[in-house]
Every structure is written in structure tokens, then in C-alpha cells.
Amino acid sequence: MASTWINPSTRTATIDDLVNGVDRYNPNNSGILEDYLYHQIRSEEYDCLANLAILKLYQFNPDLYNPDIVINILIKALAASPLPDFNLCISLLDERTSPSQLDEPDPLPSTLPLLKQLQNLLYRCRFPAFWKTYLSEEFESLRDNYTVEVAGFENSIRQVAIRAVKATFTRISSERLGSYLNLEGAALVSYVQSLGWEIDSSSGNIVVPPNPDNQIEATVVQEQIKLPQLTKVISHAVKA
């Protein structure tokens, strides 16, 4: 997983050269990286290091700052939870006044608290609360102006929930999993089947396939203390 994060298979050679070379600090390449971000948005691909390179360019060159680009980077990073991608992006956002060249008010100051709230819920695995919050009237502008443009956004959030379920459960009720995924009925059944998981017809529970994270295995720790080591301990205790 770490190798995929560092060098996604979908990254082109041109982008790889920009991300890993000195040209990542060349402001003339900001347009190439921004176009690559929009490609990620349309294609459901994700490249954290390339997106971080954009934010670093904005740090060094405030005149390049584009709030819509920043918001889209943060939205893509949301679906990487529980990896620290979102916080890595936040760490590169300077406290700055809005550049004078912006034609409209900067949407980032009002949008950033909403994104932080969503990230906090995801990080704590409060998936039902995430969906309730995300679908609320307060977040309507975020949905209408940004996430609607991100291909597969809701499914990418569902993948965050699935990763948590796989690491925690061996069996889970359909109702509970549905609340985690914001799915019910036929849509939930279809999604579960796409994962290759089985539904117990007698109980309605969903069987999560065994994996190293959800299996309890007894671990035997055997310590071998040799007599010379023990005599040293005893002698030190006597002297004390």
C-alpha cells in the first residue's frame, strides 16, 4: 500500500518526473499539475504526492493560489482516511489573506471547516453521522459546487467504511452496514455482492471474509532466561 501511495500505477512518466524532481518547485508547471488533479477528479484516480506538490507551489507562489483547486485536493484526500493525507494537505495551507486577483470571494474559509468536520467523522469511523452531516442542508453548497463534480465520491467514502468493517467484523447486520454505507434494500444487496461477501439468509447478517485484521489468534510469548542472567538479577537485588 505504501508503494502505491508513493507511486500510483496511474501516474504518467511526465507527472512522475515533476513530483520526484526539482521541477516540482517550478511555478511554470503548476498548470500541468492542476490539469492532472482534474484528471483525478474525472477518473476516480488519486495521487496524493502530486496534489501536495500543487499546495507547495501555492506556498512559494501566492499569486498562483486557486481556492477551487485547494478544495478539490482536500475532497480527494477525504477518501484516503484513515491515512493522514488530509492533515498533510492542511499543513501546507498558510494563513493568508485572499489574493487581490480573485474575481469572487474566496470560498475556502467557509468551506474548510465543513471539510474538517467531515474528516473528523471519517477518522473516528462515525459513518452514519458522516452521511447525516454530509447530506444536511448546511452542506448543500459543498455538494452542489464541488463533490458533485468528483466522480465516484460517495463510493470512495463507502470504501473507507468497508476498510474499517473488514478490519473489525466477521459478521455484521445488514441494517448496520447499510447505515455505514448510506445504502438499503436492493442497492445494499447489490453492493455487498460486488464485494464478494455472503449474506446469511437465515439471519440476514453479512459474513465478512476472514483476513489478518479480523481474526483473533492466540500468541504465545516464550521467554528464555538462562541461569547466569538470573544470578545477576538476584545478586543486584541482594546488594540493593
What does this protein structure show overall?
There is one protein chain. Helix content is 57%, strand content 3%. It has 240 residues and is mainly α. A 3-stranded antiparallel β-sheet has the order 1-3-2. The protein starts with a helix and ends with a helix.
Task: Please outline the helices and strands.
Elements: H1 2-6, H2 13-20, H3 30-43, H4 48-60, H5 67-78, H6 85-91, H7 108-123, H8 127-134, H9 140-145, H10 153-168, E1 171-173, H11 174-181, H12 185-195, E2 198-199, E3 205-207, H13 227-239
Antiparallel strand pairs: 1-3, 2-3
Total DSSP E strands: 3
Percent of residues in helices comes to: 55-70%
Low-confidence spans = none
What do the pLDDT scores average to?
90
The best one-word shape is extended
Q: Total number of helical segments?
A: 13
Tell me the series of helices and strands, N- to C-terminal: HHHHHHHHHHEHHEEH
**How would you classify the helix and strand content by structural class?**
mainly alpha
Strands of the biggest beta sheet: in what spatial order?
A: 1-3-2
The major pleated sheet works out as: 3 strands, antiparallel
Radius of gyration over all CA atoms, rounded: 24 Å
- Beta content comes to under 5%
Terminal CA distance reads 51 Å
